[in-house]
Design brief:
Helix content: 25-40%
Strand content: 25-35%
CATH class of the largest domain: Alpha Beta
CATH topology of the largest domain: Rossmann fold
Organism: Marvinbryantia formatexigens DSM 14469
Catalytic activity: L-homoserine + NADP(+) = L-aspartate 4-semialdehyde + NADPH + H(+)
CATH superfamily of the largest domain: NAD(P)-binding Rossmann-like Domain
Protein name: Homoserine dehydrogenase
Largest sheet: 11 strands, mixed
Radius of gyration: 23 Å
CATH architecture of the largest domain: 3-Layer(aba) Sandwich
Shape: elongated
Keywords: Amino-acid biosynthesis, Methionine biosynthesis, NADP, Oxidoreductase, Sodium, Threonine biosynthesis
Family: Belongs to the homoserine dehydrogenase family.
Number of strands: 19
Structural class: alpha/beta
Distance between the termini: 49 Å
Bound molecules: L-homoserine
Length: 406
């Protein structure tokens, strides 16, 4: 029997207990031994709930129990999760987590601690919820040099953008609905400002490129400025607007970004709708691969956490995770990255056509009759820096959205 402890009986923690109870016989078979939840750490009591007999309020009971070999950290946030995780690893207990803030910030150090002790720190649920992506990057795509990762990494914003696209509604309206449905938090900043996607692309990039990508270095733009009018243009162009987290090799360096991006129907990310997530990976030998599924929610996330418990049970004394070096990967400034842009400009297309073409060269104009006093155009490929200079010269830009090229 392998004894485990769960830190936190919130949405994911209770999901972990539910998954282990629901699928106990197949999970035990796959783990090679019976998995027993010995403790659940939470501040609260759960009177009348069968979990009550396992609830402890003191972390030291778990830390000092030599029978506990695996600890599931599903508390979220940096502290006390960081301190508890470190103490568990130092005590020789494997840890698995869904905590993207912690993995993005301290993943390199925690992986190294685990490796030194021949135990494991696994975090399949930290990116893409229930979608297997960490394990494939760690153990399946190992023959490749990964040169690009691009993902729809946030379910809440993808739900909101899908609603705006299909129902023509405004941002504030769909945010309110997402909050009512429990997808978006009361304070939605982590999702809508792109911070959540930023941490996830930092983790995926660190793992794929083998060195620490600091999330603080990643240019991050959320969806708060996307409007129903933007979707009118997108529909006219036959494109979708998606919040993407992406990182890419450019020459000998890498850049990373989170931003709303216009995506073509030929792009596999185009049809990823609602709360679903997808992660597109390009390897120099494999070519393209895409991983798709439920990126959030109690049971999909718990499914990924429990898959880590099983892996840790199977490898109690062997480190299976490729660790990324704590040496920082210096990202290049996005100003040299190249792409085309969709621009909305104020004024009359008849009067501005020549000036736009003089500044931006050959462009494709789009006019939406009901949007008076403005017009749109898509540019050719140019660097971010070149775009900024030209937009400044035009002086009448209402907004711009990047266009993804595949
Ligand atoms: N708020 C996140 C999302 C939860 O909407 O994707 C999963 O990390």
């Amino acid at each position: 029997m392998i004894h485990i402890a769960v830190l936190g009986y919130g949405t994911v923690g209770s999901g972990v207990v539910e998954v282990i109870n629901t699928n106990h016989s197949s999970i035990n078979k796959k783990a090679g031994e019976e998995i027993n939840i010995k403790y659940v750490l939470d501040l609260r009591d759960f009177e009348g709930d069968p979990i009550q007999e396992k609830i402890v309020h003191d972390f030291n009971i778990i830390l000092n129990d030599p029978e506990v070999k695996i600890v599931v950290e599903v508390m979220g946030g940096l502290e006390p999760a960081y301190t508890y995780t470190k103490q568990c690893l130092l005590a020789g207990k494997s840890v698995c987590t869904s905590n993207k803030e912690l993995v993005a910030k301290h993943g390199a150090e925690l992986l190294e601690l685990a490796k030194e002790r021949n135990i494991n720190y696994l975090f399949e649920a930290s990116c893409g919820g229930g979608i297997p992506i960490i394990r494939p990057l760690n153990s399946s795509l190992t023959a490749d040099e990964i040169d690009e990762i691009a993902g729809i990494l946030n379910g809440t914003t993808n739900y909101m953008l899908t609603k705006m696209a299909t129902e023509g509604r405004e941002y504030d309206d769909v945010l309110k609905e997402a909050q009512e449905k429990g997808y978006a938090e009361r304070n939605p900043a982590a999702d809508v400002e792109g911070y959540d996607a930023c941490r996830k692309i930092a983790i995926l990039s660190s793992l794929a490129f083998g060195r620490q990508v600091d999330f603080e270095d990643i240019y991050t733009e959320g969806i708060t400025n996307i409007t129903a009018a933007d979707f009118k243009y997108a529909r006219e162009m036959g494109k979708a607007i998606k919040l993407l987290g992406f990182s890419k090799k450019a020459g000998e360096s890498f850049y990373a970004m989170v931003a709303p991006v216009l995506v073509d129907p030929t792009d596999p990310l185009y049809s990823v709708n609602g709360v679903f997530n997808a992660i597109f990976v390009h390897g120099n030998v494999l070519g393209d691969a895409m991983f798709y599924g439920r990126g959030a929610g109690k049971l999909p996330t718990a499914s990924a956490v429990v898959s880590d418990v099983i892996d840790e049970a199977k490898h109690l004394h062997r480190s299976i995770m490729a660790f990324w070096s704590s040496h920082k990967l210096e990202l290049t400034d996005i100003s040299n990255s190249q792409r085309s842009f969709f621009v909305r400009a104020a004024g009359s297309l008849e009067e501005e056509r020549a000036r736009v073409e003089e500044i931006f060269g050959s462009v494709h104009f789009i006019r939406i009759p009901e949007l008076e006093g403005e017009f749109g155009f898509t540019t050719g490929i140019m660097t971010e820096a070149e775009y900024a200079v030209r937009a400044e010269r035009l002086g009448s830009v209402i907004s711009r959205i990047r266009i993804r090229s595949i």
